[in-house]
Amino acid sequence: MRIRQFSRHSIVYKEGESEDAVYVLLSGIARLVFLNRKGERNLLEVLGPGDVIQIPSLLPDIHHKLTCEAFTDCKIGLINPTALVEGVVGIPFRDFSEALNLTVGRWWALLERHSNFLSQTVREKIMLALLDLGRKFGQRDDHGIIIDLGLSGKDIADLVESSRPKVSECLKQLVAEGVLKRDHRRFIIDPAKIQTSLRS
User: Is the entire prediction scored with pTM above 0.90?
Assistant: First the structure.
């Protein structure tokens, strides 16, 4: 595995410019963004340590419009797909790739189709980002899941690519609805309430 460092807000990879490697996030926070047919950016996921963020290299016949951006300084491990599959799974990469194309390949097409019809509000982006942060960095207690990363309102605005005033307004609404609590730069979320709010 080769190790690369990416500074805050730099591009980790995008289609056509990524190396032929599987990217594993070793430290830091990154975001996975999909560019739809209108050129609009949709936040798909907030990534944390341990996340594999270059799956398309395992699906060489699948085209995608994904971009991974370092939200904080990140350390990324790059490993050759063939070495990963044959070393860990123990089967020839070609066989693995064909099986993956038959199973996962169609989900990439579904993801692209969904993103082209998706128009996330700032509120939805914030809730999705908080769910991801909670899942990857949170600590559960009696009050919910605590996200203690020292993130400010401006950091959240940068993460979801919106204005700080709009994000502040949305965060206040979420606090008023009991979906979110704030303790200085700590966020305490209720995942069940967020999921209910996203479905409504």
Answer: no
